Amino acid sequence: MFPHLSQSYLFFADKLEKANYYLELSIEHASEPLDSRLISHLATAPINDGGQWDMARNLLERYGVVPQAVFPESYSSSNSGGLNSILTSRLREMALQLRDLTNGVGVMRARALKEEFIAEIWKAMSTAIGVPPRPDEKFVWDYKDKDGKVKSWEGTPREFYKAFTSKQYPVSLDRVLI
Fold first, then answer.
1. Domain edges within the chain
2. Does domain 7-165 sit in CATH 3.90.70.10?
């Protein structure tokens, strides 16, 4: 028995990680001129959909995965253009504030503000997509086995990944993307 996995769960985690990464890069490169090629490139699309194998592997290892029944699709996860547009605009505003703060007061205060910004992004995505289970939060999944008997599984998203998907779809470090 192999469950339908929640794409929305990894979609949520991916957006959150990309937002964090973009804001961190804004702090790290605060001294770079705003019209530099690097800053232009970073601001172009800080949270595009999709990614590479190593990004997917890291998401699975860090967040785990859940069945689609536990965290189903939503309009915004299936049609991400509007959400991406809103988040991109807000992230650019946040990046400018972090640059100014880093150059004025310092990195420590900027990183503290970044955490507040990540909480704001999480809240916006939770409103649009739903509140996903935390990687260490237990959930209950009821399903029917191959004989039609109702069964129940309880555990965290990380435990679910290890129990159900890591054996069929291992994402070990010995894989290379060419």
1. 7-165
2. yes
Angle at 46 between CA 89 and CA 175, to 5 degrees: 160
Q: Bridge partners of 140?
A: 154
Q: Looking at residue 167, what is its pLDDT?
A: 66
Q: Which residue has the tokens 């916006």?
A: 124
- The residues that bridge with 60 in the sheet, in sequence order, are none
Question: From the centroid of its chain, how far is CA 65?
Answer: 12
Between residues 9 and 56, the one the model is more confident about: 9
Residue 173 in tokens? 């470090």
- Please, what is the angle between helix 81-104 and helix 7-28, to 10°? 30
Q: What is the mean pLDDT of residues 118-125?
A: 98
The angle at the Cα of 98, spanning 92 to 101, to the nearest 5 degrees, equals 145
Average pLDDT over residues 137-150: 94
Whole-angstrom distance, CA of residue 161 vs CA of residue 113: 33
Count CB-CB contacts under 10 A for residue 85: 10
In this structure, what DSSP letter does residue 73 have? -
Is 176 a residue whose pLDDT tops 60?
no
